[in-house]
Write a structure and sequence with these properties.
single chain; mainly alpha; 26 helices; globular; MetI-like fold
């Protein structure tokens, strides 16, 4: 019964539009994109850049996570709390941060560094900025679950630290890493905002190509055929992700490896190297935006008082509040219904499989009479946000000891009273985390608004994009100032909910 509402929502807002997209794509032969050199390159490059990002994220993130999991040092708690901040920053802001750092007029260029405009490395770096934190946080959580007795036994038998990692720690954390890398692949393959701004003409991904075919060329059949192949590739990855996540559904281990203070120059060098990786790949673009905006001048900052900015701010806030409220209801119902079902658990990830561009495209084709309606826009926002709530609550339910609810039922409590007095208090940190990510997703949503919004319903993201599309230094500076405002909103949404959950939530949220 609980599954009825979220499944009906998915059917109306996702499955039916996706089928409409497939019908549109069925007008062309199924192999049509692979027979066109231009479209084939878009598909291949989308796969390559996602795969390369996964490899680099693993190579950079695992050592950082090992430092966070094994050493106790000043600032560690702040790092753990801040790890997901790049992830909640809107993708358009992340893209602007990369340009402010590495673009033609970026900070590095001003200091004599290279100009990476027109190269694929801008997009790769943007992907790492946005997704490295996922790998670091998942690996940190996984390393915190490694059995201390097994590690001690291996060391007692003469194993070196490196051999202990390969033979004891790596087998234990590999599933967690695979789960995180599946998410990284999905976000990179289906990403839109980063690829639109950083990819350029040559290195734009298939998502940008779908948007171009629909919005500028009206080639619906060609776009639909691309959608078909994107759904197949991302659907397979999402199925692997859901399967791995269910196998990780185990209570937290009490026998964990104790953290220790770094000893000697070598260990402190490792700690500082981890700090350097996080600063370069997670903090530098945000700092570059603040730096560039700080020197933009009073005229640029006056954009904050423009009527267009105030209207966009109001739209962003009201869309976010309504979308998070709806996403919370849907996510809670879905998580409770999917506790014992791999199929239902997998269905919660459908909005991850179908990108915002595809969602908007499908809704545009299926409900043309509603495309400019306020309700459809809010529902589209909630559709993209509620998997974060469902996923976080599902992880919380998996780690919840079964005897708590059983004891309450034994004492005569009704199912509703068990949920209200036992289950919900235990799930409160997970619910806060899910709502935090849902809020950040709604604040920074860009693709859906481009397709479905009326001009008077423009948000801060579309306003930033409009300024970026206009020539002149003044417009670029105004976009930087608005990007700062967007960044502050996203960080406030995250801090008000995630930070209030306390350090315990940070320790047990590696799969959020």
């Amino acid at each position: 019964m609980l599954a009825t509402v979220p499944l009906a929502f998915l059917l109306a807002l996702l499955v039916a539009p996706a089928l409409r997209l497939l019908a549109e794509g069925g007008q062309l032969p199924v192999w049509a994109p692979w027979q066109d050199d231009y479209l084939r390159w878009r598909l291949v490059w989308s796969f390559l850049q996602a795969g390369l990002t996964c490899a680099l994220a693993l190579g950079l993130g695992l050592p950082v996570a090992w430092v966070l999991a094994r050493f106790e040092f000043r600032g560690r708690t702040v790092v753990l709390h801040s790890l997901m901040l790049p992830f909640v920053v809107p993708t358009l802001v992340a893209a602007m941060g990369v340009l402010a750092l590495m673009g033609p007029q970026g900070v590095l260029k001003a200091w004599g560094g290279p100009d990476l405009q027109g190269s694929p490395w801008l997009l790769i770096y943007g992907n790492l900025f946005f997704n490295l934190c996922l790998v670091v946080r998942a690996a940190t959580e996984a390393l915190g679950q490694v059995s201390a007795s097994r590690v001690a036994a291996a060391r007692t038998l003469g194993a070196t630290p490196w051999r202990v990692f390969l033979r004891v720690e790596w087998p234990a954390i590999a599933p967690w890493l695979m789960s995180a890398l599946c998410l990284v692949f999905l976000y990179c393959f289906s990403g839109f905002g980063l690829a639109l701004v950083l990819g350029g003409q040559e290195y734009a991904t298939v998502e940008v190509e779908i948007y171009t075919l629909v919005a500028h060329e009206l080639q619906f059949a060609q776009a639909g055929s691309l959608v078909l192949w994107v759904l197949v590739l991302t659907g397979l990855v999402a199925l692997v992700y859901a399967t791995i996540e269910q196998r990780l559904a185990t209570p937290a281990r009490a026998d964990v490896v104790a953290r220790r203070k770094p000893q000697g120059a070598g260990q402190w060098a490792v700690v500082w190297a981890a700090w350097a990786v996080l600063v370069v790949f997670c903090a530098a673009p945000l700092l570059a935006i603040v730096w560039r905006a700080g020197f933009a001048g009073a005229q640029a900052w006056s954009v904050l008082l423009d009527d267009a900015t105030l209207d966009a701010l109001w739209n962003s806030l009201r869309f976010t509040v309504l979308a998070v409220a709806l996403a919370t209801v849907l996510g809670l119902a879905h998580a409770l219904a999917a506790r014992q079902s791999l199929l239902l658990r997998t269905l919660a990830f459908l909005p991850f499989v179908v990108s915002p561009v595809m969602v908007a495209f499908g809704l545009l084709l299926l409900y043309p009479q509603w495309t400019a309606s306020f309700a459809l826009l809010v529902c589209a926002y909630a559709l993209l946000a509620y998997p974060f709530v469902a996923k976080s609550l599902a992880a919380g339910l998996d780690s919840m000891p079964a005897h708590l609810a059983q004891a309450a039922r034994t004492l005569g409590a009704s199912p509703w009273r068990v949920f209200w007095r036992v289950t919900l208090p235990v799930l409160r940190p997970a619910l806060r985390r899910g709502m935090a990510f849902a809020a950040a997703t709604a604040v920074g949503e860009f693709a859906v608004t481009l397709f479905l919004s009326r001009p008077e319903w423009g948000t801060l993201t579309t306003l930033v994009y409009a300024y970026l599309g206009r020539p002149g230094t003044a417009n670029r500076d105004a976009a930087l100032v608005l990007a700062c405002l967007l960044m502050v909103l996203a960080l406030c949404a995250f801090a008000l909910i995630e930070w209030s959950a306390g350090d315990k939530s940070v320790q047990h949220s590696g799969q959020s």
